[in-house]
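Task: sequence in, structure out. Protein: Phosphatidate cytidylyltransferase.
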Amino acid sequence: NLQESESENKLDGETASDSESKSEFGGSPPVPTSDDTPEVLNRALSNLSSRWKNWWVRGILTLAMITFFFIIIYLGPMVLMTIVMCVQIKCFHEIITIGYNVYHSYDLPWFRTLSWYFLLCVNYFFYGETVTDYFFTLVQREEPLRILSKYHRFISFTLYLTGFCMFVLSLVKKHYRLQFYMFGWTHVTLLIVVTQSHLIIHNLFEGMIWFIVPISCVICNDIMAYMFGFFFGRTPLIKLSPKKTWEGFIGGFFATVLFGLLLSYVMSGYRCFTCPVEFNNDTNSFTVDCEPSELFQLQEYNIPSVLQSVVGWKTVRMYPFQIHSIALSTFASLIGPFGGFFASGFKRAFKIKDFANTIPGHGGIMDRFDCQYLMATFVNVYIASFIRGPNPSKLIQQFLTLRPDQQLHIFNTLKAHLVDKGMLGSLEDA
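Result:
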């Protein structure tokens, strides 16, 4: 009986402890990582040391990824939204695959099927909310979309409830504990990956500049911190990432702030970057065109007297958005790297070098986007707290969908309010 009890506990995952022993993974080995550097690069760099070989591989692939980034920016916001969704799916796949490989010996029933089903449910909920919020006129014009919008949350809950019942029905004796481990694993992955990608799309719809500048700041900080650390790094920064140094951290900070100011100055002059994405009823298409807000109009600022003698100027002309870019680049430099440290701790917990081998010299897609998700949340909170106000066009759109008696009630209430404020009389006199 004692042997049977111990056997059941092992199958149930009860022997997992905080130590990094083999029993923590249920007897399965950690996910292997192989050298996936293209053969062409291996031959060309064969005479270099491993340190410099890695430097060149990372550099070449980084330039390739930056080029691809410029191409998708040129293709417009809808393509960017599609790319964000593809990246989200790939990141989800990488994290779920780690869980599947770690506990593969238990052959958990329906684990992968349910994981992807929950991904579908959560995406349906978030994307439905986004379409209803940003493209209200399009939704109200099309009958099927109007019905889906009206019952969207009920449909989303029904879909999730179906998956929940499927999970309960999949529970098998001796696998209970592990199945609940993986249920939690899936939901935490959804929270980290899907929620953050949803916020990235929200930022994109506010204007491409709110998408490009934060992402570019994280990329710049990652590159410059690596460069400063590679050439000048001496002092270790954190035990989770032994290769990270204080020299790289500080050098990356100053380089990123300067980069953010310059990039913001260039992009603030183009409407295609500063205007929000909207649906045009006349052309039946998504447009990015508007009168620039005050954020993107050059203004004159007085330079503090302490700095006037240094720079030789009393005033400087700059866009207000550039001031906000300092906050964005500072977060990308000082707090953003903690997303990478979190990912490093996760990988160490499961004894893997990278999330996957998708990008030679860089690891998986999640290895490149571990800091981006933290940045996306900050940008969304920053816009809601300091930038975005009530949107009159959205209020009018919602007002027009009400019944005539409801519209009349709101009209009379608003009229009485304006009369009390003395604004309606002045408008009539004018």
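Residues 48-108+172-389 form one domain.
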